[in-house]
Fold these 2 entries.
Entry 1:
Amino acid sequence: MARRSNLLTLLSFLVLGLLGAVMAERSAGCGKANTIRSQQYTITINGKQRQYIMKIPDRYDNNFAHKLIFTWHQLGGSAQKIVNGENINQGGALPYYGLNALANNTAIFVVPNGLNAGWANQGGEDVTFFDELVKRVEADLCVETTQRFSTGFSYGGAMSFAVACARPTQIRAIAVISGSQLSGCNGGNSPVAFYGQHGTADSVLNVSGGRQLRDRFVRNNGCQAVSPEPQPNGQNSVKTVYKGCKEGYPVTWVIHRGDHNPSQTDAGSSTPFAPRNTWEFFSQFS
């Protein structure tokens, strides 16, 4: 009986320990009455005023731990354009890169506004902006802190890459759409789950730049290199899921024949494939 009692006590401690670990992944804002609303805010970072827009679910539940998704705009874009969306037939992206429409009230979106409509990240100031936003949002809203994600097109993809390089333990996965290394890469030696897509006819940021971003995380994540280099299948995109990656750190690459376009479609389809691919990639970590 004593042995059984000791075993039950040990199991109880293990269960409590696991529960504690799970609870520790929930942000401080869980269970609190939120003050953050779906609107624009301004904060001061390193003496500069920075703007960002919040989008919380219409049926926000302060006891449900949400995904936290950062959506960074392209050069010349703005947070408001990400929120509103732009004409996908003229090279624009769907609102929130199409992710809010797929989230079904499970995600909180942070939409930062860049200095000079871009993400030069001088001295790491845009990564510091990211740090402050995480701190503020999670103090007020209920977030699953192991479910932070970042995505963006062009310069926004570059900024997502910079966050993955500098804050690999703070970001679960990134999705880079037609990106290149424009916002720096401070660090960049740790694994982060990586989704990337690029067009072979990209006239703004050559596909070689997108491949370089991908290959860094192929190495960091311990994946097996693919040879020959994946190519589009006519007018259809080709998705490559890399093998041998460290558990929890997958790499997916989508190549297409298009130009610099966040809303590329496959032949016979009018629906951009980036939103679906990105959401599926992020959702595997739920």
Entry 2:
Amino acid sequence: YLHQVAEKIDALGQFVMKTRRTLKGHGNKVLCMDWCRDKRRIVSSSQDGKVIVWDAYTTNKEHAVTMPCTWVMACAYAPSGCAVACGGLDNKCSVYPLSLDKNENLAAKKKSVAMHTNYLSSCSFTNSDMQILTSSGDGTCALWDVESGQLLQSFHGHSADVLSLDLAPSETGNTFVSGGCDKKANVWDMRSGQNVQSFETHESDINNVKYYPSGDAFATGSDDATCRLYDLRADREVAIYSKDSIIFGASSVDFSLSGRLLFAGYNDYTINVWDVLKGTRVAILFGHENRVSTVRVSPDGTAFCSGSWDNTLRIWA
């Protein structure tokens, strides 16, 4: 276990994170959010069918789109910052170009890119605006060409709903990890469509997967009330983040920029911060009034954002 190896490492000192901004504007549960690479803008999606682009600093809403469906479970910012993708119960992934014109009718420029046979659970642009990776309740992941909407590659290997995916951080970025209701986390080769590694130690649905900054490992958050760390080179689970007092599922996980901290949002309305190496909990963050559905560290690592079923997003630093 990682914890034994890390025994001699200094423990982290006390650190305080507070809510610095609260973003209010959704009329229902916030289900997903993503940061723009400009480190300032955020896109969020909600059960109310709305997708909102925020300036996280001023809390202004820069764009808002109402989707044709409720439960918009997935949203993502394009690497260029010039578009957002989203979808959910409509089984599609749609891309909206963003312009500087605040009065522009975004819906008119919507492009349907991906089509699944069940709900869209997550989406992510690859290293360009030209391709998008999706996961779905139909048990598959897929890679699409944004311009043509053509299916470039599909990924079959989960035996139930896929709930989350994350692209490997390397610039070559030819692998991604997915997790879902079959309790499995699968690593895929994007070019061949092959499932190259599979991990199954969770006792319930895997709600979220996230690569370690180096790309050599990834973390999972599960309904079994644990988060786990899997090492790709060792091909095994190397750490479990859990406490007897934590009985609610973990909905979302993300690493600090250094990889030393793991932020995890839970269904008991809290965010727990874990020391990745020592396996100890170093903070509990209170503030949300319903379950935390999404946590994402900003691209420069100076803050993180959480979204919740209490209809709000919070920026912590």
